[in-house]
């Protein structure tokens, strides 16, 4: 079970969402979602496949537009920003994709250098190298600096994907299914890394998953998306202390003997 991060600052909201609705044609995915993320917090969004978890974080990152609702990220209303303002805000949001999104033709070093060259043009090579060494050390893969992504295991690729997101020092981390496709031991390593990133870089994070072991290990708070709305929220134990059959079924399926 996660030990609550003592540095969570409940007086500081880094994300505030009210009444978010999103439909594709006449299929309503999000039917009025309210959500707050506090400074320093790891918030887990749980839900079955297709419930709109990815849609939610894409709206937060400004990659999809909401139909209705207020989406405030780091004090700015995302859907009122100009494209330039949105680009600046996006640099403060690290999006860790499910497939790690590494460039296969580039070494680990080049994958990590790429965002720095693109977004931090003022950094010289020595500073870039220092930054690359620091994030690789943080994810425990200093020795992989000259390897190609194809030479890495799934768990290592996830770590490099997280390092590449961290290299721009985001204030918010969005993790999309961080343990998908990994064995239980490698998953636990990634869960530990998510907690380590929270402590070391003082990030606020949303972790979307249907892996309850992950939710229990990383979540300071857990919310459960069911039928387009958050039906349950609290600590992991609070969320599952319910007679709601849909929530119980989700739990039993994950922890089946
Ligand atoms: N750009 C899009 N156009 C049309 N429909 C979409 C689009 N993006 C998502 N959807 C639909 O919205 C629903 C929610 O998708 P979403 O990817 O958010 O699910 P999820 O909860 O993240 O599921 P999973 O755990 O499988 O990734 C799905 O039915 C999906 O088909």
From TrEMBL:
GO molecular function annotation: ATP binding
Q: Which residues form the ABC transporter domain?
A: 15-252
Keyword Lyase in annotation: no
Gene3D superfamilies, per database record:
P-loop containing nucleotide triphosphate hydrolases
Q: Give UniProt keywords alphabetically.
A: ATP-binding, Nucleotide-binding, Transport
SMART domains documented for this protein: AAA
UniProt xrefs under InterPro entries: AAA+_ATPase, ABC_transporter-like_ATP-bd, ABC_transporter-like_CS, P-loop_NTPase
Q: What is this protein called?
A: ATP-binding cassette domain-containing protein
Organism the protein comes from: Pontibacter aquaedesilientis
